Structure formats: structure tokens, C-alpha cells
Amino acid sequence: MFIEPKMGKSRTGTEHRGGWIEVICGSMFSGKTEELLRRLNRAIIAGQNVEIFKPAIDTRYHDQNVVSHNANSIRSTPVQFANDILLLAGDCEVVGLDEAQFFDTDIVEICNKLANSGKRVIVTGLDMDFSGRPFGPMPGLIAIAEYVTKVHAICIKCGDIANYSYRKVASQSKVMLGEKDTYEARCRRCFNKGSAAEQKI
Length: 201
Ligand SMILES: [Zn+2]
Known about the structure:
Blueprint: E1 20-26, H1 32-45, E2 50-55, E3 65-67, E4 73-75, E5 77-79, H2 84-89, E6 94-97, H3 106-116, E7 120-126, H4 138-144, E8 147-151, E9 153-154, E10 161-162, E11 164-167, E12 183-186, H5 188-200
Parallel strand pairs: 1-7, 1-8, 2-5, 2-6, 6-7
Antiparallel strand pairs: 3-4, 9-10, 11-12
Helix pairs in contact: 3-4
Bound molecules: zinc ion.
């Protein structure tokens, strides 16, 4: 279980607001968005000002909501470019970013700027694409984050811990939105077995 970091105290003992970055990453069906919502809801209960952004590309469920698979949702703002977040974040204390793998690479610097200005930044995203390669800006975000939580799904084939998002339909496009009809969570062994079988066809 992730323990929320506390606000720091300066050497003189006075309270100061230091920002930081948390990354929640993993495969599809690993509960990334549920974990984001858990952390954000706790901040909201504490009376903190929270803003949530997601790439405009991800409109699977609803334009205005970050919606996890269990339909527990918080309103969010779809943005076209990572840069827009700096303007929109305003004076909020906590910034949530969902589906960060779809943001352009500017998102890494944007997150740094947000944290440097004293905000808590919580980022979720797929760390690997359907071919098992690092996804978009995620490696950069993981590198600059103070806290990284990798969550896992369960392999649909064998029940082991799943680290990969296996695409069930033939398409080489990196961005392909979908849920259970398009992807399944698989462990390393079952992911490799599936990819090898595909190559024989
Ligand atoms: Zn497996």
C-alpha cells in the first residue's frame, strides 16, 4: 500500500510546500486508474484543491470524467497538448494525470514544472505498449518521479502476475483504444507464447 508523503518542514521548522511526482504504472486491467482515484479522493476529503487532466485522445467512456473500470469517477479535463496543463492547473495543490502514455514528450518537463512550483503530481499510464516496448513519455516520467508504484493485473491464460497488455486483434497501430474485446493482461511467458504464435501465421 502506498503511504502518502507528508509536507516537508524547513530547517527552521516552518512549514513549506514542496512538490513531488508520483507515477502509477502497469499493464491494462492492473488498477492504475483505481489507485489514482483512491489517492485523489483522499486529497479531496482533506480539502485539497484537485485538478485532473487526460489526453483528449482517450474518450472511451466519457469526455469529462476519469472513469476507472469500476465506474468510480472524478471529473477531468481533456487536453490536446501537454503544455495546456500548465495554464489550466492554476493554483490547485494536487494534479492528477490519467493515461499519460498518450501525452506528447513535453509532459515530462511539464510535470517537473508543476512539482517545482509546489504541487503534488500523480501520473498514471501504461508503461509498455502492446508490443512490450516502453510507451511514449512513461520512461521519462518514471525517471523524474520521487515515487513509482508498479501495479499488476492477473494473466488471463495462467493466473500468474501479468505485466503485459496483449492485443487480441491484428493491428500494428500503437494507439488503439479498447477494452476487454481488444486487449488482455498476460504474464511474460503467455505474452511471448502469443506473440510467437502470431508470427507463424
Ligand atoms: Zn500467463
